[in-house]
Specification:
nine-stranded antiparallel β-sheet, 5 helices
């Protein structure tokens, strides 16, 4: 489940244990942060663990306990009664180590006392039944300090202050190979272990709700296709013209989380209104039985602030915000 303590910087040790990142099929990722002078009431050390962007474990220097943040993780403790105590001890050690790192880096950067942060981020990704991706990096005061390249089995130091660390870690026999094995193998094994526990949330599918709005601009029209409430995060969306993917004058928004754990994103395009019938918002997602093509033509419904809301194939009855588009299967 874990890698043992590893020497960090010139003076200190870091224990790497189960974790991982991702954004594809399923993933785990961990974020550690230590603050030299936290605000009143703020812990100076925090560790957050995520599975598929869901916070599932937590530790801070106030509670000094590694705890579950989702109900399904309680099953792990039932199967392994020492699980929480074992990793509580690991994180208490990390807590002390990170304080030492902050002091070392402050001297290495020739800085006075004050607010400084030291962060550790790592994770892995599972796509289908195979390991895909995997990353590990450290940051100081919000900037990358050193990054692990698992393909070359070396550490990359983007700043001069990290070169001591780079030389030290690269010189330890088997050290970097152990990180690579962890990210590509052991971390993946933990994802596979956790997925059955959290299957009701992690393996669920929620289809996107597609809404459309438009606004005239200098003889053209800007159309926005909004996709909301979908899970998992991965979604394929594009504008098509005459059934072919159309890239000119299009803009993809980032995929962002909703409060309920689902996601949303937007896709916009600027077109000549005379060609409106040629365009579709094409959507593919695991929650859909078939891909969707949402047409632009239809009844015009006047929205606020100059925006026209569209519903293909008939009038939208009720509140005009947002307009709901009927969807055409391919």
């Amino acid at each position: 489940m874990a890698l043992r303590s590893l020497p960090l910087l010139v003076l200190v040790g870091v224990a790497l244990w189960e974790s991982c990142l991702g954004a594809s099929s399923h993933s785990m990722k961990y974020f550690y942060t230590s603050i030299s002078e936290p605000s009143q009431g703020q812990p100076h050390f925090v560790c957050l663990g995520y599975v598929d962007d869901e916070l599932f474990t937590y530790y801070d220097s106030h509670s000094r306990k590694f705890q579950p943040r989702v109900s399904w993780m309680e099953k792990v403790g039932k199967e392994d009664p020492q699980y929480w105590d074992r990793y509580t001890q690991v994180l208490r050690g990390q807590d002390e180590d990170f304080r030492g790192n902050l002091e070392t880096l402050r001297f290495r950067y020739n800085q006075s006392e004050g607010l400084h942060t030291w962060q550790w981020m790592y994770g892995c990704e599972l796509q289908g039944e195979e390991s895909k991706g995997g990353f590990m990096q450290f940051g100081y005061d919000g900037r990358t300090f050193i990054t692990f390249d698992k393909e070359t089995l070396t550490w990359v130091a983007p700043v001069p202050q990290a070169q001591i660390t780079q030389r030290k870690w690269d010189a330890i026999p088997g050290y970097n190979q152990r990180f690579k094995s962890y990210l590509e193998e052991e971390c993946i094994d933990w994802i596979k272990k956790y997925l059955p526990y959290g299957k009701e949330t992690l393996l669920r599918t929620e289809p996107p709700v597609v809404t459309m709005s438009s606004k005239p601009e200098d003889g053209m029209e800007t159309h926005i296709c909004r996709l909301d409430g979908f899970y998992p995060r991965e979604i394929e969306a594009s504008w098509t013209r005459d059934r072919e993917v159309w890239l000119p004058d299009t803009l993809h928004g980032s995929v962002a989380p909703n409060a309920d754990g689902t996601f949303h994103t937007t896709l916009s395009i600027q077109i000549d209104p005379k060609e409106r019938g040629r365009y579709r918002c094409h959507v593919e997602h695991n929650g859909l039985q078939e891909p969707l093509d949402v047409a632009l033509e239809g009844e015009r419904l006047q929205g606020g602030k100059g925006w026209t809301l569209w519903q293909a194939g008939g009038l939208w009855e009720g509140n005009l915000t947002p307009a709901v588009c009927s969807c055409e299967h391919t």
